[in-house]
Design goal:
TIM Barrel, 12 helices, 8 strands, about 45% helix, globular
């Protein structure tokens, strides 16, 4: 039985005080209200990581992750953060390949494969994002796009390494738009991704890897989405910025 994950990606939101306040609220609600088999992950901006990691240590159900990392361990890369620094801040996870990074920072699958390597080398768990644009879906290319993203970003990994990865399917057309993929659409793509994993790594390994859905997840659609056989939780954006809505989404995974 795969332990579900609900991860909140704060993106470039919340100042330091607001981030600590939100974390404290979520910690308290999760400890008081969540009894199911679900892991909660908070993914704030870099400057929050150490302080929020210290706050979440008080909860066995909440951990932290970073939104990005550099491919290199150190060096003359002004403005960048290494996976080693993220690990030292107390994190457990690190995102790689979010659609906004792919779009605004021109991150290719080849670059992301190196980031995944850096994340794993520092004993962090990658949350590797993939997903198609509306134009790609309408053109019937979504399986080709997602297949390339998964294969080129992850399939160089060994059996042992891939087991440490989490995959997040985020249709670009559903991120921050209020439009959510239907349950059937989401499950179809998740099953496709799991079948890719079966073909490469075998059923035993593929059945252990968690695949999250992201894209306008809300309290009123979380339970239906997370009940699908290949959807193992969510990567939540806007709804993660309010403690009540986020914890209600977590409840949908229980």
């Amino acid at each position: 039985m795969r332990t579900k994950i609900v991860a909140g990606n704060w993106k470039m939101n919340k100042n330091f005080h607001e981030g600590l306040e939100l974390t404290s609220e979520i910690n308290g609600m999760v400890n008081d209200e969540i009894n199911g088999n679900v892991e909660v992950v908070l993914i704030p901006t870099f400057i929050h990581l150490n302080a929020i990691s210290q706050l979440t240590q008080a909860s066995s159900k909440v951990s932290t992750g970073a939104q990005n990392c550099h491919t290199e361990t150190s060096g003359a890369y002004t403005g960048e953060i290494s996976a080693a620094m993220i690990a030292a801040a107390g994190c457990k996870y690190c995102l790689a390949g979010h659609s906004e990074r792919r779009l605004y920072n021109n991150e290719t699958n080849a670059i992301l494969a190196k980031k995944v390597d850096a994340i794993l080398a520092n004993n962090l768990m990658p949350i590797y994002c993939c997903g198609e644009t509306l134009e790609e879906r309408n053109a019937g290319k979504h399986f080709d796009i997602i297949g390339s993203q998964v294969k080129e970003g992850l399939f160089h990994l060994s059996n042992e390494q891939i087991l440490k990865c989490v995959i997040a399917y985020e249709p670009v057309w559903a991120i921050g738009t209020g439009v959510t993929a239907s349950t059937a659409q989401a499950q179809e793509v998740h099953a496709f991704i799991r079948n890719l994993l079966v073909e490469k790594y075998g059923n035993d390994i593929a059945s252990q890897i968690r695949i999250l859905y992201g894209g306008s997840v809300k309290p009123d659609n979380a339970t239906e989405l997370f009940s699908q056989p290949d959807i193992d939780g969510g990567l939540v954006g806007g709804a993660a910025l309010q403690s009540r809505s986020f914890v209600d989404i977590v409840k949908g995974a229980c």
